[in-house]
């Protein structure tokens, strides 16, 4: 099944640094409304359409306020491009005149319908988090639900508590990261110690093998024409006739002793 011809945009992922605000955008936002957007993004993420126009260098057509809040949350610096991040957007390809018309259309309350107050009141009465839905105390008053009011002081406390908890979570994450780094360093040190020990063992084996080879070279073999000549040699230096091995140092001393006796 083919996609409807009325879907003219293309969904992409794009770096925040590549899109820019429309300087003509006629929409304004109060600080309270901005807090509502920020509260919603923190709790549910960035939802809803973000529209940019490719033909004018990826100008934002819809979503200016949400992107400005995202910039704040991501600590994005538009001048240095520090803390750049990726956003999902619907890309259109129109000229500037059409872009401006679309900007007005997408932000125009006259093209968005109105609340069914009875249904809205029923939803709010179900104890939903109406602040998370962007509703104000004035909205609830119009719905006849004053008993659910949360004072501005209570709201400020709730907001401050939320910010505080974010800081606590950040500290916990930093502690967890520090413990992970310490554990990794310990594992690396243990591995290094094992490698060093293995190298020492290998060196000891090589040294032993070399010593054994050296000892093999410490032998001298004598040969005689017959067994009688061998026996005469052994008897001359005081060895038993059936002796098979002679210590070189001992033989050296006996040679000196024989030389002395012969000289006398």
User: Rg to the nearest angstrom?
Assistant: 46 Å
The percentage helix is: 40-55%
Helix/strand-derived category reads alpha+beta
Q: Judging from the principal axes of the Cα atoms, what is the shape?
A: rod-shaped
- Low-pLDDT runs: none
Describe the structure.
- The chain is rod-shaped and about 130 Å long.
- Strand 2 and strand 3 form a beta hairpin.
- The chain has helices spanning about 30-45, 65-75, 95-105, 115-125, 135-140, 150-215, 225-235, 250-264, and strands at about 10-15, 50-55, 60, 85-90.
- It has eight helices and four strands.
- The mean pLDDT is about 80.
What topology emerges from the helices and strands here?
Blueprint: E1 10-15, H1 31-44, E2 51-53, E3 59-62, H2 64-74, E4 86-92, H3 96-107, H4 117-125, H5 137-142, H6 152-216, H7 227-236, H8 248-263
Parallel strand pairs: 2-4
Antiparallel strand pairs: 1-4, 2-3
Helix pairs in contact: 1-2
């Amino acid at each position: 099944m083919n996609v409807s011809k009325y879907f003219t945009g293309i969904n992409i992922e794009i770096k925040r640094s590549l899109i820019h605000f429309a300087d003509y955008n006629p929409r304004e936002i109060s600080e309270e409304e901005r807090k509502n957007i920020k509260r919603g993004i923190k709790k549910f993420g960035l939802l809803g359409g973000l529209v940019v126009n490719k033909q004018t260098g990826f100008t934002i057509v819809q979503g200016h306020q949400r992107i400005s809040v995202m910039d704040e949350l991501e600590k994005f610096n538009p001048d240095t491009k520090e803390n750049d991040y990726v956003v999902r957007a619907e890309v259109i390809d129109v000229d500037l005149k059409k872009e401006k018309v679309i900007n007005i259309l997408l932000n125009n309350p006259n093209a968005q319908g109105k609340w069914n107050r009875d249904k809205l009141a029923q939803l709010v009465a179900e104890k939903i988090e109406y602040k998370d839905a962007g509703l104000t105390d004035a909205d609830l008053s119009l719905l006849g639900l004053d008993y659910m009011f949360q004072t501005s002081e209570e709201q400020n406390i709730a907001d401050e508590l939320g910010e505080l908890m974010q800081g606590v979570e950040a500290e916990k994450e930093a502690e967890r990261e520090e413990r992970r780094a310490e554990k990794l360093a310990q594992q690396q040190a243990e591995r290094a110690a094992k490698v060093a020990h293995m190298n020492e063992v290998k060196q000891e084996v090589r040294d032993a093998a070399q010593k054994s080879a050296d000892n093999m070279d410490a032998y001298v073999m004598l040969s005689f024409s017959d067994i009688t000549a061998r026996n005469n040699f052994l008897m001359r230096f005081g060895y038993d006739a059936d002796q098979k091995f002679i210590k070189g140092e001992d033989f050296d001393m006996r040679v000196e002793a024989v030389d002395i006796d012969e000289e006398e």
